[in-house]
Amino acid sequence: MKSDRDRRTVVIIATGGTIAGTGRKGRETGYTSGTLDVSELIDAVPGIGEIADIRAIQICNVNSDDITSKIWIELTDTVNRLSRDEAVAGFVITHGTDTMEETAYFLNMTVKTDKPVVLTGSMRPSTSISADGPMNLYQSVCVAAAKESRGKGVLVVFSNRIFSARSVKKMSTYNVMAISAGEAGCIGVIRDDEAIFHDVPTKSHTVNTEFNVRNGDILPRVQILYFAVDSDTGILEYAASRFDGLVIAGAGAGEFSREYKDIISTLRSPVVVSSRVNDGIITQDAVLCENTIAANDLSPQKAAILLRLAIMDRLTSKDELIRIFGSY
Ligand code: ASP
Predict the structure, then answer these.
(1) Where would I find the beta strands (DSSP E) of the chain?
(2) 15 in active site
(3) What is the DSSP letter of 125?
(4) Which atom of ligand 1 is nearest the CA belonging to 98?
(5) Which member of 18, 94, 110, 113 is catalytic?
């Protein structure tokens, strides 16, 4: 337990998700996300007030598939504003697991504080047997309050493990350890109230990025196109005419058919190539079309976020985009 001298505040910002979901008693499917409010989430965690003073904010209460870039910007704004308060040690954001990795990466690029910002959620609704939400919330508050967590960028805490926002991803539709990071692995673990780190994120984040957003900003629109056998090329031209940029979720190391290649080579808007494969890396010297940018090891959904931020700042030349996709 912390002494009074050490006591600091952790701000819990709730957005909804399964962690705030309720359904039929005992069952883990067929529930509704985002029905409990933040005070009910906190009340379900014994001992949370022994770790830190808790301040609670409800930003929205939605299934995370209904998260929008407007909500992302509101989260960034809230964290930036409250991080100036000396009493605040860190932040926990409760969130649905479906798009948690996207929100985490967006915040990793846009918040301007080295205080810990930790996302968490749950795979089981609050009404199921062995709901995982209370433990995940408890561990997240411990990580957000820990001095060791500072300067490591936005983190995700889930099932005793600590992940970097850059590499975290949802890897199972049902498993209670669904949040993972593939080959990159976790950067730490948590036992009781102790955060134990074994790694640090190496790419630039938070205070060391060039990206700033504030309420009222509107992010450019980027569409992800998923390639599979016999994918229709018409969709490429249609999407290029409607969106500010494209991300291709290619097969293997960012590959696609000859027909796809012929059309993509003619596109003038920014095109970033990622992969539909879970683990791996696409290097710039391996891209099939000269005019495209390799996503490095970013997933299509994270590459889309970085491309939106780059387009917003008008950093759309090939050289700028290669620099950006190599830096973040
Ligand atoms: N559909 C839910 C959500 O993302 C899943 C979850 O939270 O685990 O909000």
Answers:
(1) 9-16, 53-62, 88-94, 117-120, 154-158, 161-164, 169-170, 179-180, 188-191, 194-197, 222-226, 245-250, 271-275, 292-294
(2) no
(3) -
(4) 4
(5) 18
CATH 3.40.50.40 fits 222-327, yes or no: yes
Model-level pTM?
0.97
| Domain limits, the chain | 9-208, 222-327
C-alpha closest to that of 243 among 225, 226, 223: 223
Best of 15, 35, 64 to mutate for ligand 1, by most ligand atoms within 8 A of CB?
64
CATH for 9-208, among 1.20.1740.10, 3.40.50.2000, 3.40.50.1170, 3.30.390.30? Answer: 3.40.50.1170
Q: What is the pLDDT of residues 180-191, one digit of tens each?
A: 999 999 999 999
**DSSP character for 200?**
-
Q: Any residues with CB less than 8 A from the CB of 279 and at least 6 apart, and which?
A: 182, 183
15 lines ligand 1 (CB under 6 A): no
Tell me the β-bridge partners of 92: 12, 118
Low-confidence ranges of the chain (pLDDT < 70): 1-6
